């Protein structure tokens, strides 16, 4: 589904139209948009840059441009850091549109910095990747509060804006690859709880579309897959794709917390606990239609994502 902003809350302007360059004879000729993609070396940003690059000038921002360029990142690869407003300002100067993908709920200044740089650089349209949990009144974990605050920053930025609110990414199952390769085992907490997870390629495709066509300013799109699936369901789908049996093992809360603490700071561990409890209570099972609204086709199912990424699980060590 999509929602339109309440009266008085839409930032001025609409989706940026192409700027022009001088054509032979002095006439102005349209060209593609200049689009800044933050988080360009991540799952969403990399795919969005690849989709945008054939028709638009992409500035792909990353903290390690040499590594990103060597890895085939599309567009003009630019070194920038969310904590360095000057580097962001240089990257945003004269751009038409901006895709904001941030990932650290302990650093709210990252969103402040990139929006300030975009505003100073004359960016006219900002697309922010948020989370569908912001629409759930029962969600009050650290990550959801951070995303709600990020959305408010975007609305108050003075630029035209569009919000993308995905459910969990299907690609999170990549975390199971080592245990699948070594033991043919999938381990997860609340294995029968369901999540309407979304193919991140669909999120990137929606981002590329709303960045470059009119009609999306002041809108928020809820992005899910076509059905809510459980970890046990995903285990069965992966077994079918890999052509061998996999065993699902349910984790206790204590085991999940220990695994999270090995990777994340304590405030994020507590947020993950709260988010998993909401999923267990059915809070993440509703299916939305934002992908179809924007792309004119249904979202991809988990089985399709698993088929396309089978090598991730076959080749893991």
Report the principal-axis shape: globular
Q: Describe the largest sheet.
A: 8 strands, mixed
Compute the gyration radius: what is it?
Answer: 20 Å
Residues in helices, as a percent range: 25-40%
Going across the major beta sheet, what is the strand order? 1-12-9-8-7-4-5-6
Secondary-structure-based class equals alpha/beta
Low-confidence stretches: 1-15, 20-30
Mean of all residue-level pLDDT scores: 91
Summarize the model shown.
This protein is an alpha/beta fold and 317 residues long.
Question: What characteristics describe this protein?
Answer:
disordered N terminus, 317 residues, eight-stranded mixed beta sheet, two-stranded antiparallel ribbon, 13 helices
Explain what this protein looks like in three dimensions.
39% of the residues lie in helices and 18% in strands. By secondary structure, the chain is an alpha/beta fold. An eight-stranded mixed beta sheet has the order 1-12-9-8-7-4-5-6, sandwiched between helices. Strand 8, helix 5 and strand 9 form a beta-alpha-beta unit. The longest helix has 15 residues. The protein is globular and about 55 Å long.
Topology, pairings included?
Elements lengths: L1 E3 L15 E3 L5 E3 L3 E4 L5 H10 L4 E6 L2 H6 L5 E4 L5 H8 L4 E4 L8 H12 L4 E5 L12 H14 L4 E7 L10 H7 L1 E5 L4 E2 L4 H13 L6 E5 L5 E2 H12 L4 E5 L1 H9 L4 H15 L9 H6 L6 H7 L1 H5 L3
Parallel strand pairs: 4-5, 4-7, 5-6, 7-8, 8-9, 9-12, 10-14
Antiparallel strand pairs: 1-12, 2-3, 11-13
